[in-house]
Amino acid sequence: VFEHAANGSLYVEFYDAGSRRSIPLQHQDRSRAKADAEKVAAGLRVSEPTPTGQVALQLLFDNYTREVTPRKSLGKQAHDRRATEQLLSVLGPARLVSTLTHRDAARFVAERERAGDQRRGKTLGRKLGHRQVLYDLSFARAVFNWGVGAGVLDRNPWQHYRPDFWKHTPRRPLLDRSDYAKLHEVA
Does this model's pTM top 0.70? Predict the structure, then answer.
């Protein structure tokens, strides 16, 4: 049990399946807080630890779209459904999140660029820009972060993955010094 330095609230902190958890208490009574900590400890001794990270992508994305997506705007909800469909088609719905690596993220980015725009209508198959691919990738990271916060995952497998879209587009000067000097003389 500890007291928060900024607001003075009491918290119970413990480790569950290797993850540190903090639960805010709804009171300021220290002796009652100790009793609450004992109850949490007794509950942890009785129950088996939850296996974090042993969840399939399909289950994780289904839970996210059921719990979080409805609170978003209609456009964001449509994007969530499209991005979920793309992620599951590339990575497979039965794939365990704990087995994902940065290579899988790179494969998703490459497949997303190859497939192009998947919306119906005139844009179907059109080449995607880097921003859209990054938007889809950030959606996947948001789902993984939500899973960590919900206690389902122990880590975000794509947390530090950053695709380098611009490494093959060096900035070259338009004019070299001699051409610039000639233009300067004429001007």
Answer: no
Rounded to 10°, the helix 102-115/130-149 angle is: 140
Q: What is the distance between the alpha carbons of residues 171 and 152, in angstroms, rounded to a whole number? A: 44
Retrieve residue 77's tokens: 């909800």
The encoded tokens of residue 60 equal 């994780």
Please list, in sequence order, all residues whose beta carbon lies within 8 angstroms of the beta carbon of residue 128, skipping any fewer than 6 positions away: 112, 113, 116, 117
Task: Find residue 16's DSSP bridge partners.
Answer: 19
Residue of 58, 48, 42, 38 whose CA lies nearest to 17: 48
In one-letter notation, the amino acid at residue 43 is G
Q: Whole-angstrom Cα distance, residue 109 to residue 138? A: 11
Spatial distance between the Cα atoms of 16 and 18, rounded to a whole number of angstroms:
5
For the segment 80-120, what is each residue's pLDDT rounded down to a tens digit?
A: 998 999 999 999 999 999 899 999 999 998 888 888 776 76
Contact 129, 163 (CB under 8 A): no
User: How far is Cα 144 from Cα 154, in angstroms, rounded to an integer?
Assistant: 10
Classify residue 97 by its DSSP letter.
G
Q: Write the pLDDT tens digit of every residue in 125-155.
A: 678 778 888 899 999 999 999 999 888 898 8
The size of the chain, in residues, is 187
Sheet strand arrangement including 19-24: 2-3, 10-16, 19-24
